[in-house]
From TrEMBL:
Belongs to the anti-sigma-factor antagonist family. It holds the Pfam family STAS_2. Transmembrane segments: none annotated. It comes from Nonomuraea dietziae. Coiled coil: none annotated. Gene3D superfamilies: STAS domain (3.30.750.24). It comes from the Bacteria. This is Anti-sigma factor antagonist. Residues 1-85 form the STAS domain.
Amino acid sequence: MSLHGDLDKVSVPVLREQLVLLHGERVHTIVIDAAGLAFCDSSGLWVLIEHQRLVREHGGSLRLTGVHGVLRRVLDVTGLNAAFI
C-alpha cells in the first residue's frame, strides 16, 4: 500500500477502511510505503499504531518504508520507529 499527500483527520478514515479490509483478509504482513506522504498528524499516527497492534495480535506485522519528514521525526521522537521500520 502506498500513501500520498497528507495523513490527517480527513484522510484517516480512508486508510482505516483499507487496513480493515486487509486485516479481514488475514494478511500477515502489511507494508506501507510512506514516501509520498507530505504530512502526518496525530490521527494518522494513531491509526498506524492501532493497526500495528491488531495485526500483531494475529501474528503479523505492519511495516513502513520510505519514511521521511514529519513522520520520520515523530517516529524518532516517540521511539516508535523500531515498531514500524
